[in-house]
Amino acid sequence: MSLSVKHLLGIRDLQRSDIETIFQTADSFKDVLQRPIKKVPTLRDTTIVNVFFENSTRTRISFELAEKRLGADVVNFSASGSSVSKGETLIDTVNNILAMKVDMVVMRHSATGAPHFLSKHIDVPILNAGDGINEHPTQALLDAFSIREKLGSVEGKKVAIVGDIMHSRVALSNIYCLKKLGAEVTVVGPPTLIPKYLANALGVNVTYNLREALEWCDVANVLRIQLERLKMPLFSSLREYSLVYGINKQLLDSLHKEVVIMHPGPINRGVELSSDAADSKQSIILQQVENGVAVRMAALYLLSGKTPNITVTGN
After folding, report:
1. Sheet holding 184-188, edge to edge
2. Which residues are annotated as a binding site for carbamoyl phosphate?
3. Which domains does the chain have, with CATH numbers?
4. What is the pTM of this model?
5. pLDDT tens sequence across 62-74
6. Which residue ranges make up the annotated binding site for L-aspartate?
């Protein structure tokens, strides 16, 4: 099995067959993660560097776990405290790392398009762990994989993406991924946080009514407000946002059907999601975290070009 791309820069670059290949591979790796010994030597003698120019907790830990579960040698690079603070360029930083014989790069950067720029200048596979407000491909893959696991398939499912659509790379990658897999997508949030081009350019439904969206959907993927990216006030207060667009258990119980609740994290409890909703039986947030390791293992394995048998035959 292999992918049609050398790098995983964004979902828009993938074919549906690529996504399905990643899911099939992740199924095998998820079986590995259930064993007492949760490692396979698939990427032994492969060195992977995690280059993070932006803060991260879940994504960085998930990638590092995935790499170590595959038997890879892992190097973590953080921009803070590095020569980047002395004015070193992105290309010089990565080329210096590659001179140490690194085989793959996982990169997060606050600048939109940074991994795409880098892919034109270096010759090893790059996995985009989030670039600016553009894409976060592995998050979208693990979200869709979690829907597939919970509901049996993504095809034909109705998914509402709730919250700060304008500043969320997760939202854009999810829209691309869900549409490629045959799901219907509605985005919901304040008018100031939903780009005007979405309906026509990406073929999604747009509503500003949360209850209407929840009554329609099978799955609600709830996003946080990207306060660090807001350049100007786009709503009056977090309290007002929570009153209009926050999801709590009382709202969920009042619906005419049970809706699956997702969140890419970190959760701002009491703003977009109440604790009783986030921790309810309808929530698959922790399953998303678990699936993230298997999906990232699959992506790393497929991009590495290694071809050993990963079939799970027992404990």
Report:
1. 205-207, 184-188, 158-162, 219-222, 260-262
2. 58-59, 108, 136, 139, 265-266
3. 11-135+289-304 (3.40.50.1370), 137-286 (3.40.50.1370)
4. 0.92
5. 999 999 999 999 9
6. 86, 169, 224
